[in-house]
Amino acid sequence: MMRIPGTKNGGPYPRYFTIVSNGAFKIYELKKIGMISSIVSIVIGSVLLIIGLIFKYFNIRRNSLFGYRTFLSMKSVSNWVFTNRIFARFAIIGIVILLVGTISFFIHINYRFIIYGTLTLTLIFIVVTEIRLKRFDENSRAKIKRD
Q1: Could you tell me the residue ranges of all domains in the chain?
Q2: Under DSSP, is residue 58 helix (H, G, I), strand (E, B) or coil?
Q3: What DSSP character marks residue 39?
Q4: What is the pLDDT of residue 133?
Q5: First-to-final CA distance of the chain
Q6: C-alpha distances out from residue 127 to 39, 86, 101, 133, Å
Q7: Measured in whole angstroms, how far is the alpha carbon of residue 14 from the centre of its chain?
Q8: What's CA 30's distance to the chain center, in Å?
Q9: 3 state SS of 32
Q10: Using an 8 Å Cβ cutoff, are 132 and 73 in contact?
Q11: How far apart are CA 87 and CA 75, in angstroms?
Q12: At what angle do helices 94-106 and 111-146 cross, to 10 degrees?
């Protein structure tokens, strides 16, 4: 590793990069995987937030490309509307993932915490949405049978 004189810890980006001298070339290589996980967390949080806002403020018709698409959600129009509204509420919570990713970019947080936290929150969103959709579908079928 090569140190640059006059800079703290050998370079302007000591947390993320090391300078490796390879003959006449200086190669900047990634020092910590934490930066990548921070960026991934920021991207996932942003995408969830945007999707949540789209689902909340726009009426998305049932289609084959966009929306919360599972077998049960595509079963009927009422299931589709219900599922996308529920998932919109959870997806807006993606701002938490976005904030954690942004904070971890500046403050050292273990990358495993970021990756596992992002995956856990996303899976919780999906599982809770499916449970609520199943209850909604059973209630709507029971209501149809009563009528």
Answers
A1: 1-31, 34-146
A2: coil
A3: H
A4: 92
A5: 76
A6: 25, 12, 23, 10
A7: 28
A8: 23
A9: coil
A10: no
A11: 17
A12: 180
Contact present, 132 and 79 (Cβ < 8 Å): no
Is residue 63 within 8 A of residue 49, CB to CB? The reply is: no
Which residue has tokens 């509420």? Answer: 89
Q: Which residue has the tokens 């915490």?
A: 113
pLDDT digits (tens, 9 = 90+) for 119-135: 888 888 889 889 999 99
Cβ atoms of 79 and 72 within 8 Å: the answer is yes
Q: How would residue 30 be classed by pLDDT, with cut points 50, 70 and 90?
A: very low
As given in the structure block, the two tokens for residue 88 are: 């919109």
Q: What is the pLDDT of residue 32?
A: 55
Q: How many CB atoms lie within 10 A of CB 96?
A: 15
Residue type, 101: G
